[in-house]
Amino acid sequence: MGKHEAAEARHTALAAAILRRARIEGWRRGHRMTELELAAALGVSRTPVRAALRRLADAGYVVPHADRGFVLAAAGRHLAEARLAAPDTAEASLHAAMVRDRIAGRLPATFAQATLARRYGAGRPLLARVLTRMHHEGLIAPAPGQGWAFTPTLEGEASRRAAFELRSAIEPASLLLPGFRTDAAAIARLREEHAAATRWIGQPRPDAAAIFAIDVTFHEALAEMSGNPFILANVRQQNVLRRLLELASYSDVARVRAWIAEHLAILALIEQSDMMAAAEAMRRHLGIAAAQPVIAATARRRRIAGG
To answer: Fewer CB in a 10 Å sphere around the end CB: N or C, the chain?
Structure first.
C-alpha cells in the first residue's frame, strides 16, 4: 500500500469517528467543530483532522464556518444513515486474509515472515507493516528463536465462544449496577440509528461495517450508562476483537433485523426501569448471537455480521 492509500484510509476512518461522535453526543445541525477540539478529543494531530473534515465536507455532512472551522450540515435521520466506506488497501486486504486463514486453520500457530511472503505474494515492506499492526493489536507475538506466533485470541470458534462467555457475564450484570443511569437522549439516538438501519440493510450490497458500527454503539452506550469505566473499557476491547473474529462470521439480513429488534426491546425495558428484565433480555440476546453458525468470509456479501 502506498503512502497516499494509507493516508486516505486513515482520513476516512477518522471522518467516520467524527460522525460517530456526533451521533453519540447528539450534535444538532449547525454544531460548530474546530480542528483543535477534535484533535484533542480523538487523540490525533490537527493535520489528519483537517483532512477528515474535508472528507466530510466533500460528502456533504459538514460545511465551512465563516469564522474558521466547520459546522454540522446534517443531523437526525440523515446523520443516523451516514456511512463512509474506507477504501480497500493492500494492507487491509492482507490483514483480513491472515486473520481469516488463521481462524480457518490454514495458517499454523507459529510462522516465519518468508512463509507469508510465499503464501500471499507480498513484499517485505507490506508484510512488515501488517505484522507490526497485528503485534500492536495483540494478535501475534515474537516466537522463541525466530518468527512469530499467533496469540490464543484467534483460535477460531473456541475464541469466539470464550468471548461470548465473558460478554454474557459482564454486559447483563452491568445493567443491574447501582451506578447505572439511563440516558434518555442517548437511547433516543440509538433508536434513530436502528430505525435508519432497517431502511437500508436490505439493499443488494448492504454495508456490513456500518451495521457493525451500530451494534458496537449500542453495546458501548449501555456500558457507559453503567457508570463503571472498567466495564466500558472491557466492552470496547471486546468490540475490537469482535471485528477481527467476525470477519469470517456472517449472518443473513433476517438475523440482522432480529438483533435490531432485540436491541430495541432491551432499550424499551431500560426506559421502563425494568432492569431485571432488561438484563435477562441482554443475556438472551448474547446467547442467540453466540449460537449463530460461523459462515465463511468468502460467502456472498449480502450476508452481514451480527451480534
So the answer is: N
